[in-house]
């Protein structure tokens, strides 16, 4: 899985500069990543990586670091 | 000070029999009573006044409880201001005071996970194409109401979310029909508040002569109360019959829950009963004496609230316990029915007892 590609998906979906997308970026810690944005983010990741994420993983995706782990687990390509 | 609140088990909320879940829940609730007394001065003062020093209960019905309207009058919280990540408000009609519930990150995360454990038992683990019977404007900006919390909470179970209503609460028939067509081969999750589904979707379709066929595997989950339907004498059986007739919706599950205990919801099973998950329960109280009874005012218990003292709340609803552990659907624990609200005159006598 390409980290840069996931960064780009995050930046575009949340509307923040790619430079702000670090492992520390966390759900509900920045105004751009609230529960409404979260659903759009999940949809964007599913589209860009062609995967279907489970409910439990949607809930667990609480940071960029966590998202990297989850997307990698789905064996998503670049 | 108690350093950590009790760890709560969320997984498998319906497999544990009543005796076992009650013992676990009682321990959790007693720990939460101590936790909140140490952190919320207003709560501690009330408990001293009403219960004296003895607040560790020997059974669920003895856990100190607060009347739900107290949350309309007092800002009760057990965390510092800067730990509050969200403030929920009840969707009370205009002119009436609303409840204010303060959530920190931990309680908020627990609510999300608890809701997932409950709902997955009914609809499965796969996220389903989701038709939200509300308008997109409901969840944008402003106050975080029970309706917003409900829509957002349930959105985790959906994908390809579509809103069935426009900003004027009129059905977007073209979008709805396109959505149903696109997902014809998959079960669809429909979600909405009970009166919104009834007034703005079902009745709207009936008066416009519209029909849908969502297929036998699709499921509607709805909650938020029956008051407006009861006013027009529409009961659950009638509601279900009309939904089946108009939309081909045969799987319909109501849920009972409140903004004061988000995450702890009581889902209606296939046999038509509301079920308590293992981390929550209900106690019915005689409306005159407040003694535990089979039928009466509904008290809700939940092991989730950490940031506000809402683990035991006497509601203004009426209900009847129908049984424990032996529901035809196979789920363990308490199952019950809700009958409506306590008439206004009667409830003054009952809830002010604990408020003063």
UniProtKB/TrEMBL annotation, chain A:
It comes from Tahibacter soli. InterPro entries: ACP-like_sf. This is Acyl carrier protein. It comes from the Bacteria.
TrEMBL record, chain B:
GO terms for molecular function: long-chain fatty acid--protein ligase activity. Pfam families: LuxE. GO terms for biological process: bioluminescence. It comes from the Bacteria. Residues 58-353 form the Acyl-protein synthetase LuxE domain. This is Acyl-protein synthetase.
């Amino acid at each position: 899985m390409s980290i840069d590609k996931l960064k780009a998906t995050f930046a575009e979906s949340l509307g923040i500069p790619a430079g702000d997308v670090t492992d520390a970026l966390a759900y509900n810690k920045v105004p751009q990543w609230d529960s409404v944005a979260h659903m759009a983010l999940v949809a964007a990741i599913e589209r860009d990586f062609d995967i279907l994420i489970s409910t439990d993983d949607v809930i667990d995706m609480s940071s960029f670091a966590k998202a990297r782990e989850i997307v990698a687990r789905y064996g998503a390509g670049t | 000070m108690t350093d950590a609140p009790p760890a709560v088990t969320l997984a498998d909320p319906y497999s544990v029999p009543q005796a076992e879940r009650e013992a676990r829940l009682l321990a959790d609730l007693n720990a939460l009573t101590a936790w909140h007394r140490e952190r919320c001065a207003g709560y501690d003062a009330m408990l001293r006044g009403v219960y004296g020093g003895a607040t560790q209960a020997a059974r669920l019905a003895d856990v100190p409880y607060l009347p739900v309207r107290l949350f309309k009058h007092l800002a009760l919280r057990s965390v510092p201001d800067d730990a509050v990540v969200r403030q929920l408000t009840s969707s009370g009609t205009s002119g009436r005071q609303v409840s204010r519930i303060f959530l920190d990150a931990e309680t908020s995360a627990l609510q999300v996970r608890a809701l997932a454990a409950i709902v997955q038992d009914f609809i499965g683990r796969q996220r389903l194409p989701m038709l939200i019977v509300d308008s997109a404007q409901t969840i944008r900006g402003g106050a975080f109401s029970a309706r917003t919390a409900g829509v957002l909470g349930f959105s985790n179970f959906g994908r390809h979310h579509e809103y069935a209503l426009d900003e004027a609460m009129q059905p977007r028939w073209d979008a709805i029909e396109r959505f149903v067509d696109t997902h014809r081969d998959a079960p669809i999750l429909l979600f909405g508040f009970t009166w919104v589904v009834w007034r703005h979707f079902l009745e709207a379709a009936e008066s416009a002569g519209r029909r849908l066929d969502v297929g036998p595997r699709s499921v509607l989950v709805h909650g938020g109360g029956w008051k407006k339907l009861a006013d027009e004498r529409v009961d659950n059986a009638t509601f279900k019959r009309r939904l089946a007739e108009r939309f081909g919706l045969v799987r319909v599950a109501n849920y009972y829950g409140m903004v004061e205990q988000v995450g702890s919801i009581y889902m209606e099973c296939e046999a038509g009963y509301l079920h308590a998950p293992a981390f929550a329960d209900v106690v019915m109280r005689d409306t005159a004496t407040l003694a535990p009874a089979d039928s009466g005012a509904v008290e809700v218990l939940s092991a989730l609230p950490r940031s506000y003292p809402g683990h035991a709340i006497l509601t203004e609803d009426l209900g009847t316990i129908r049984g424990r552990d032996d529901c035809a659907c196979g789920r363990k624990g308490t199952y019950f029915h809700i009958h409506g609200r306590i008439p206004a005159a009667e409830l003054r006598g009952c809830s002010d007892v604990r408020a003063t």
